[in-house]
Design a protein that fits this description.
- Four copies of one chain form a homotetramer.
- Chain A is mostly helical and 188 residues long.
- Chain A folds into two domains: 48 residues, Orthogonal Bundle (Arc Repressor Mutant, subunit A), CATH 1.10.10.60; 136 residues, Tetracycline Repressor, domain 2 (Orthogonal Bundle), CATH 1.10.357.
- Helices cover 73% and strands 0% of the residues of chain A.
- The model of chain A has no long low-confidence stretch (mean pLDDT 94).
- Chains in contact: A-B, C-D.
- Chains A and B meet through α6, α9 and α10 of A and α6, α9 and α10 of B.
- The structure holds a DNA duplex (21 and 21 nucleotides).
Chain lengths: 188, 188, 188, 188
DNA sequence: CATGAATGAGCGTTCATTCAT
DNA sequence: GATGAATGAACGCTCATTCAT
């Protein structure tokens, strides 16, 4: 049963889990997720072997969605700064448009139910951004730092920026720019 | 007072909680914390009214410990860069020397059992660093950003740096310096 | 609906609760009730939301059972004395035949978990007896007393009588008659 | 240590227990009773071996107090009806003046922690009333009923009457009289 | 003798998972 | 495959009782 037929139901569960995690944290009962998804209690377990399995898949899917949003429409021929700026903007827009997904993701990222395998897979999902970053830092002050460190710094700055954009939406655009400028100063 | 409340025991519970949170997350059973502390099940509740109370106090204590480690021996007359560098080093040393505390803190920070009051108190604990930061950014590119944003960026960079220092201890010193340089570029 | 909620099981839990309350009072552990009912620990809570809920429902059911036993086969055209005598006899027979139910009921009646709503509903259950009483006392010495008082007196006499019938079963019939005669003297 | 020196403390605990039982039922924690009595947690157990012991002694004391209130100033030479009426009035006055004691007593009476021995001793306390009753019923319709039954009936009527006097204090006097008349009709 | 911290069994309730229907 | 009742281990917390101070 490599994947049960009804993908709609699977997606409904994923979406429900996202919502419920936001309100109830990682201890959200599977029964509540199932109910929110309009599905019976036990049906959840025909789509996901365990609760941890659901969480891992959700984590991966959210990360992938985020990455693909960030990379959408990347102007591959533009200058590097321009490209990164584009990614940054898309990324921030995603965060602001999907606050629930971001919050669920934050919770999941910190969970110890998420396996190293899932984390690695999620990481891969951002490979596109990684490559761009690689080219940018090549001549900058971080040229000798491990790539993972550079990515971590970018993620950290992105997270801080998102928090402020969500927290103070009136000045979201400014915060977005300030965040990007800070990142650029770090990298080049 | 017969058999006064024993500070050693309180500390043992705090330390045990730190350890158990690392291995079991926020769902760390109180019974396990008590056992780890060498104390009876119910004794935990003579020192802390509820599990949430324990977690809030632990959160505050860990944050305060971290802040005071960072600020210890601050060369108040040195140049600002020198001062921040000192804080940064001490901070990183604390993180590397107390990986369990840092991990527990990360979990606690994300818990919704931690009250706004505790968060505010914990924040105050870092006031010294905040002031330093304030003076540093006054003439830099972030002079118009909200202070909270600046702090968030610093925390984000610090966390990323710590992760790499812990992950790759051989080059800890280098990572520490790279992180600091990045921070400095962001601020000035 | 897969495996519909089983009325037998519900009844088994009710009966078990009755028995356990007799031996352990209102602090009867739910786990013991479940075991006595031959049901898992947690299953009790698929039939009753809380222990208090179980107790309220049990209270109501026992009272209703008692009332319907008392009113069964009421000779509605007979003289009032005859009717009351009939109710009294049936009532006493119920008490003697179901000593556990009576004891559980006594405990429940005194519990502060039983809500006013349940008490009111239980009261309604005895409305038939109330009406009869109403007609009887209309021309008697209690014609000006509040109806509630009259009912309370009847209940009090009934309880005393039941106690003696149970305590001294050999003379149960005589006690039953003595009790009734006392009641009749009070009322008319 | 047939009786610890400090009778005041013992009495304070008894009084506290009375109050706490009213508000919290028989599951009132001993710690709460101790606190209410202004006494340490563990001190309670130097005055009473166990919680059950406290409850038994309290039960006995309350019953004795009630009985002695009822018998106080008994006009031993008056007519029997007059004597009973006097007892009845005093009894009702006691109930109305000490609602907490009465309520605690009601709870205790139903508890299965109260031993048969305590119940017997409490019963003896009412011997004075019993003798009066004995003489009254000697020529009445209950002349052949067991004495215990007669006492039970009286208690039952008394309880019902008290409930109404407390519930509807405006007409307390009338309810008192109605109750007595009912009793008299039962007895003679 | 007073105190109150220490103890640990016990309780009501929850919940991931299984399985009869 | 879908359903939801059944299961029982686990949890946070309480409390009568003990005992070090």
């Amino acid at each position: 049963m490599a994947r049960p037929k009804d993908d709609d139901k699977r997606n409904a569960i994923m979406a429900a889990a996202t919502r419920v995690i936001v309100t109830r944290g990682l201890s959200a009962p599977t029964a509540m997720i199932a109910q929110e998804a309009g599905v019976a209690n036990g049906s959840l377990f025909t789509y996901f072997e365990t609760k941890a399995d659901l969480f891992n898949q959700l984590y991966l899917e959210l990360k992938a969605g985020m990455a693909s949003a960030a990379l959408e429409g990347l102007p591959a021929r533009a200058e590097l700064r321009e490209q990164l700026s584009h990614v940054w903007s898309k990324w921030m827009v995603w965060a602001v448009s999907h606050p629930e997904k971001r919050r669920a993701l934050a919770q999941l990222a910190v969970s110890d139910e998420i396996t190293p395998v899932s984390r690695a897979a999620a990481h891969k999902t951002m490979a596109g951004i990684g490559e761009l970053l690689e080219r940018i830092r090549a001549n900058g002050p971080l040229r000798n730092a491990p790539m993972g460190f550079v990515v971590a710094i970018m993620n950290a700055l992105a997270d801080a920026t998102m928090d402020f954009m969500v927290q103070d939406p009136t000045n979201a655009d400014r915060h977005c720019r300030v965040g990007f400028d800070a990142l650029w100063r770090v990298l080049s």
